[in-house]
Amino acid sequence: MNTLIKLEIQRTLRNKKFMFFSVLYPAGLYLLIAGGASSTEVVKGTGLTLPLLMMVSMASFGAITAVLVGNSERIAKEREKGWVRQLRLTALPGRGYVTAKVASAAVVSLPSILVVFLIAAVVKDVRFDAAWQWFALTGAIWAGSIVFAALGVAVGYLATGDAVRPLTFIIYFGLSILGGLWMPVSTFPGWLQDIAEWVPTHAYAALGQSIELGNAPDVKDVAVLVAYLVIFGGAAAWLYRKDTRKA
Amino acid sequence: MTTTARTFTGDRHRTAPPVVSFTDVSKSFGEVRAVSELDLQLHPGETVALLGPNGAGKSSTLDLLLGLRTPDSGRVEVFGTTPQQAIARGKVGAMLQSGGLMEDVKVRELVRLACDLHPHAYPVEQVLEHADLTDIADRMVNKLSGGQEQRVRFALATAGANELVVLDEPTTGMDVSARQAFWGVMRAQARAGRAILFATHYLEEADAIADRVIVLHRGRVIADGSAAEIKAKAGARRIVFDLDEYIGEGALRELPFLSSLEVSGRTVRIQSHDADATVHALYGLGLYPRNLEVAGGPRPGAGVHRHHRRRDR
């Protein structure tokens, strides 16, 4: 099992295109959006400056890239090629494959979070009153990414072949934009704000924003994320079992 | 054609519990009955060939045996338990045609994974050597040729001390020397007391390797015995025809029920123990045989293709 996780991590690190997209791209996007923004002016309705707001958004975005995009495409492809079938002929327990995928994605998502923090701290001078906020932020964003890892597994077992990439990207960009990861939700028209409130990425980013303000995460956001985790995890488990019966 | 002839079950194994046991197993895919009321028993130490043309139910039978599919009715037991449990205990090694490989990893890394997952694993370097992979151990898996990939699959199937090795048309894509090396290793495994079950559509291969041949047709066992018995029963018929242009022997070797093949110029001479199926498959390959002749009924089984056998041994 550990060898499988290690191997999954190793091959992800070897995939330069993927590493660029999940680790460097969110940090680059941060510089692009927040690079020239004021570090004192507060964004309407958030209580946070743009550099602070975007730091959480881009760290969340990077973590989602690592766990959602990486997993869905890989799983779909490996199912198609028969690697999943081959693994079922080993003593690896049934869920080992998915567990290894989620675990290795979690390892890769950590640097994408930390690189954004580093860039924000160095370039935009982002500081907190207390050091615990950095740790809490990292922990919350990292732990929250499990919701999207489950979604990635579900998509990987749902789609095959040519369909998986467009489907992944529609979900990925759709969730990122609707949840306000690319621009604050407060800039949306009212009706869209009402929808955005119930999107998992919005609740995900809100976790980090609460911590930045020195507060505990909102109960509603946590509840929304847990609900999505149940939905995505349930879908992933159901699709996984369906696929297993089909062999 | 539905009577089951069971003339050979290996008396020496009668007392030991069976390695594999199918009891009245059926499996359909939509309208197609892939496996039909199959009863089958494999005993320790046997080397058994599952023979039949494409669509006879060989792969479905192996999938059921390995627990990749569940039967509609009947029971499949492997070492007295479910296929999944037998695999989890490291008793079964399998090499499938449809088994894909992990990409973006080196051959050695993948073999190490297989060894790590096996409860009774051999040392990695030994597995690599037996599968003739030592020279390409540092190559990326996705850069391998078809035959090399097949050797990697073989390495994954033999990463540890299994008591049963299951192989689905294992030598597809291998050249003659790789084929010989492959069966050399399998014979050593058989001598070590392992049961081996392999699917093939080659009587020649079944004859050279197996001490028991089970012939499947439309998901049923239609014959079960030693290779010599099967050959005598089926009888070899000669098929002779001309082709408009020379085509390589390789494509023709894929024909089912072949027991020998000879290509001289545009003329092809085949011996088959199911001439109807062979000729049917010939058209299936998109070939148009001219001056087609099918001759001879049952011939004395032995000696039909002795020169082929010698080459393989």
From TrEMBL, chain A:
InterPro entries listed in its UniProt record:
ABC2_TM, ABC_2_transport, T7SS_ABC-Transporter
Which UniProt keyword terms apply here? Antibiotic resistance, Membrane, Transmembrane, Transmembrane helix
Mainly localized where?
membrane
Please give the organism: Streptomyces albireticuli
Name of the protein: ABC transporter
An example Gene Ontology CC term for this record: ATP-binding cassette (ABC) transporter complex
Topology versus the membrane, per the UniProt entry?
Multi-pass membrane protein
Write out the GO biological process terms.
Answer: response to antibiotic
Q: Which residues cross the membrane?
A: 20-38, 50-69, 102-122, 134-159, 166-185, 222-240
Residue ranges of coiled coil: none
Domain (ABC-2 type transporter transmembrane): give its ranges. Answer: 49-237
Cellular localization per UniProt: Membrane
Entry GO MF terms? ABC-type transporter activity
**Pfam families found in the cross-reference section:** ABC2_membrane_3
